[in-house]
Amino acid sequence: MNRSWALIWAGISIGLLMLAAAIAPEHLGTIEPDRVLKSPFEVMPFGTDTRGRSLVDYATQGARVLALPALSAGVLVALFGVLGGLLRCSGSERVNAWIQWVTEIVGALPRMVVILVVALLLPREHRSLFPLAWTWALLAAPGAMDEAAAVAQRLGGSRFVEALRAHGYSASRIFLVHVVGYNLRPVVVRQGAETMMHVAFLEIALSYLALAENQPSFTHADSLKSWADLLKLGYPSLIPSLDYNSGHALVLGLLLLGLVAMSAIAIGRAARAR
Amino acid sequence: MAFKNAIRALTGLTLATLGTGATLAYFEESIPMSLNPLYAKTMADYRATELVFDRLWFHDAITNELRSRVVQKYQVAEAGRAVEVTLKTGVRWHNGQTLTSKDLCFTIKAMLDSRTPSPVAAHYREFIAACDARGPQTALIRFKRVLPNPRERLSFPILPASEFSSTAISPDLQFSARPIGTGPFNGKRGLRMVTFDAFANVHHQPKLVQMQLQEGGDPLVQTKTLINNNVQGIVVVPPPQRPDLSASDDVSMKSYDLRSWWYVSVNTNNPALSDVKVRQALNYVLNRTELRQYSIGVKPGEKNSPCEFISGPFVRSSPYYNASVPVQAAANLSKAEALLKSAGLEKLGGRWHANGEPITLRVGMLANLDHEAPDLLSQVANQLGAAGFDRLTSKISADEWDNSVMAGKADFDLVIGKWSFGLVEEVNELFSSSGRQNMFRYANAGVDAVLKEYDDAVTDTEQRDAYHKLHKILSTELPYLFLWKLDTKSAWRTEVRGNIVAPYYYFTEIDSWSVDG
Amino acid sequence: MLLPMVVPAVITGFIWSLPGDPASLICPPNICGGTEALARRWNLDGGAVQFFLGWLIDAAKLEFGNSWRLHQGLPVLGLLTAAIPTTLTLILLATVVVVTGGVLAAKGTLPRQADPAIRFIGLVPALVLALLGAAFIELTYGFDSFSSSGQFARLAVGAGVLGIADGAFSGAVLGTRSTFDTENQQRYVGVAILRGELPIENTLPNVAPALIGQMRARIVHLLSGSVIVEVILRIDGLGSLLWGGTLRQDFGVVLAAATLFAVVSSVLLVAQAVLETLVALHVRRSPRIQVRP
Questions:
Q1: Element containing residue B71 per DSSP (H, E)
Q2: Which domain holds residue A210?
Q3: Which C residues in the span 263-292 are in contact with A, Cβ-Cβ below 8 Å?
Q4: How far is the C-alpha of A55 from the C-alpha of A46, rounded, in Å?
Q5: Same domain assignment for residues B82 and B177
Q6: Strand residues in B351-403 grouped as ranges (E)
Q7: Chains within contact range of chain C (3+ C-beta pairs < 8 Å)
Q8: Does residue B311 share a domain with residue B200?
């Protein structure tokens, strides 16, 4: 996939996600017992759930829960990666030591405990994926900073900067164009894209765990459905002995995750080194 | 007497050995959090402790009469303010020691000890004053007031004094995982399973050798596991799985009376909801028939429905239920609208407004009720929405329910819940202005007066009359919108015989259970 | 080496901020008395610092008390002793899967044409695979799904889920390949090829620090993911204790399990440092590279 196509794909998939989020209803539709577990061929476009409600609501509400928080977490991680790389280029041993120290502590924290505590601290009316996505991004930042720092180190760190300065480039050009733009870009953008995917996986895992533990949802208002509900509805269809016709829900859930993955991959491709 | 008891014990042991020798494995809603009956919180806890401990008195599952397996005789004393209890001899604890009056008084003292933070004990502290041992097997239990039928109130499990160093019983003692009781089984809690080993006694001769409890996972998988005979029973079958199990020839469905009723509690502190007309309007907004049909799967007109509508805070079979108060099964939106308008609300753009501000109702529901009545919260919200109210819905975790909602700190406008009254249908704590379980601090002088009548009553009839009045008042005042009484269903393989399911405690008659083959 | 002390301190701060307190969760003070006595017994009455210091002193003596709410009455030390080997086995098996992906990508064994399939596999969330795995085990083993064979099956499935799902395997493959692709564009690689050397012999020492950092991040990610997998598959490991303990505010269980997590992280850090040192020594030694005909 060349860069132009990658950019187009990224734009399309993110655009679709945002559109779905924008048209999501506030509440699920009414129950229609005659339309239980209908396939997409019987009830367009995505079929229905065990209560006869359209799966379009699930898809759009899930996008609303997920789209912006995942994107913002990816951006946050990328920014931290840039920071890590730039700090390594600064050549300050003290700064590097402090970062290392903070990185080690943050890296050693059990992430799910921190995420769960943040989720439990959120007031009910402010429950959303944003704080959890940003927390995840903060916890993932050390890894991104580490990798970006390693790339900067291989460039030569502060010696690379000095060499470019000797060529007469300004500081902003050196850091923004040569360090970040040419060298760190592929790494930090890939890290950001991976974080976007991880946040999507985190959301569906947390949504399921809240259901399983008889808790209110950790990531969204209880009136909304998540893509986890699609996957939970659909996975029994893979077990023949259960004889459960919910495969259309599973396929829809995986397609939606594929859309997020597509945008992550496309973003990574668009940002790769020439 | 001792010789007779020895013979009984020997017979019991022999029967257990020669009996079916079978193990009974079943799925529960959740693994019990504690096997200490003082810290039983969930129904799974109560059912598990019923296997390990004897309650002083219990209701026979078939005849409903009050019985005891550990009391030889009793006598009401001090003009109804005390009861003298003589325990049977030869009853053994699982550690081999014998049950004495010391254990009975220890249990009561532990419950009365202010250092025992037990929600179960809190109930008994309301009316039990003290316990004095009058002999090795005789104890006098004193009450704070006259109780018309004291045995009805003394259904607590007895604890062994020998297992504790003081009457301050903490929940994290090993006893919570390795309890010692006088019940038919000795329980051990593991991480994923609880094992109950039969313990024959003078008063228990279980036919099963062992019972094993596991937390059930996905309901679909549980159902298939039962049909495939990889487990013998499921205690609580969610409504969506009932048709499949009913259709199986190898499984029989049993009704399980949870002794509970469902409600929507109304926050009378909300200015809009403080007006009784608004509450009456909300009562007309709810279409209970539709709620029942779509959540529980009971079709209109279905006979022998496990879900009966109620019009007040008692179940229909209760002597306290006032049958003259009708049930509001269907919605009546025109009546609701008329009431709302007469309360001064305006409908603008299809939404109700109070003093120019749109009314948004914050509706909450205890999260684990979703298994018994799937989507009830969204359905109630949709009906409110259709009637013109904006709404925000939330599920409530069990901890938030206990510590915030029931403590009167909830910021909801409507709360959907289930009131489990066990075997004593006293509702004073729910509706008294100083009631500890009055979640929105509802206060009404007329209600308080009637509740005092109940407290002061010395006969069953007086109590009944007081509660009939209460039912009538509450059906008009509507601090709660009463929904229904819901029996749940258990599923057991047909090889399991004699499996009488007792209301609420479930395993009260476990001695008669056996497994063929 | 301070991590096993700093991490539980940080975690104490986090869980202390949770609404309510464990003693009140047993029974709200407005319903029953005895909550203050329980708070004293559990050292909750003097603030977070007092609690943490008391816990630390007891932990040094391996006295962790009994579980307050998660597995009420069971000794915490017993829970940990059972959980540690379970989680370590789970992570080790999952790491083997991930490392295998990285190695195959580095050696070029996995063709680029397989990338779409690998990406697709990475798309499958751990939730779906774990639910499938749990259903399969429960249907196969029935009530014996917690017997030793059932437990082993859960571990094996859990390791497979962890190592494959949520982009773990695909991330290792594609991340390693991307790192090598970027490095292969350096001029010295072209020179090495002209000299008849294999590119990987020249690039590996240079990308090794980045790869080691990547792999450590992936293992940390596996550790986080293990929480989800253990909860869904009902594996009694550290993750399950952490999750359940946090939800139920069972502070003793959470702190003990979090400390062990920190120990594992410390070990990983040390391993990373050792490996990076070895790589640096190797580069300094500048061993001659065999020229291939």
A1: strand B71-77
A2: 3-270
A3: 265-266, 269
A4: 6
A5: yes
A6: 351-354, 357-358, 360-366, 390-396
A7: A, B
A8: no
Q: Where are the domains of chain C?
A: 3-60, 78-285
* B25 contacts on C by Cβ (under 8 Å): 143
CATH among 3.30.300.180, 1.10.150.20, 1.10.3720.10, 3.30.450.20 for C78-285: 1.10.3720.10
The structural domain count of chain A equals: 1
The two beta strands, B71-77 and B307-309, are unpaired
CA separation for the pair A272, A76 (Å, rounded): 19
Task: Look at chain B and report how many structural domains it folds into.
Answer: 2
- Are C217 and A147 within 8 A, CB to CB? yes
Report how far residue A157's alpha carbon sits from residue A175's, in angstroms, rounded to the nearest whole number.
11
Supply the CATH number for residue A19's domain: 1.10.3720
> Do B181 and B81 fall into the same domain?
yes
- Residue window 246-265, chain C: list those with CB within 8 Å of chain A: 246-247, 254, 257-258, 261-262, 265
Q: Which residues of A touch C132 (CB under 8 A)?
A: 235, 238-239
Cis, bond preceding A45 (omega within 30 deg of 0)? yes
Cα dihedral sign for B91, B95, B97, B102? negative
Query: Looking at residue B450, what is its pLDDT?
Result: 96
Q: Which amino acid is at A50?
A: T
What's the gap in Å between the CA of B106 and the closest CA on chain A? 36
CATH number of the domain that B16 lies in? 3.40.190.10
User: What whole-number distance in Å separates Cα of residue C117 and Cα of residue C166?
Assistant: 14
Domain that holds residue B181: 2-232+495-515
* Interface touch A108/C185, C-beta < 8 Å: no
Min CA distance, C187 vs chain B (Å)?
57
Q: Which of B112, B212, B399, B430 to mutate to test the interface with C (most CBs of C within 10 A)?
A: B399
pLDDT at B18: 46
Q: With bands split at pLDDT 50, 70 and 90, how would you rate the model's confidence at B17?
A: very low
State the pLDDT at residue B4: 47
Same domain, B32 and B168: yes
The tens digit of pLDDT for each residue in C16-65 reads: 998 888 998 888 887 787 788 899 999 999 999 999 999 999 999 999 99
| pLDDT mean values, one per 10 residues, chain A (274 residues) | 81 91 89 90 92 94 94 94 85 81 82 91 90 94 84 76 80 78 84 90 92 90 92 88 88 90 83 66
Residue A274 has a pLDDT of: 56
Contact list, A241 vs chain B (CB under 8 Å): 224
Helix (H, G, I), strand (E, B) or coil at A12: helix
Q: Mind telling me how many Å the CA of B220 is from chain A's nearest CA? A: 7
The shortest CB-CB distance from A27 to any of B367, B382, B398 is to B382
Q: Quote the minimal CA–CA distance from C31 to chain A in Å.
A: 23
- Domain contains B243: no
Q: Please count the residue pairs, one from chain A and one from chain C, whose beta carbons lie less than 8 angstroms apart.
A: 158
Do B511 and B365 have their domain in common?
no
Q: For residue C114, what pLDDT band results from cuts at 50, 70 and 90?
A: confident
**Do B274 and B195 fall into the same domain?**
no
Instruction: Answer with the residue of higher pLDDT: B40 or C199.
Output: B40
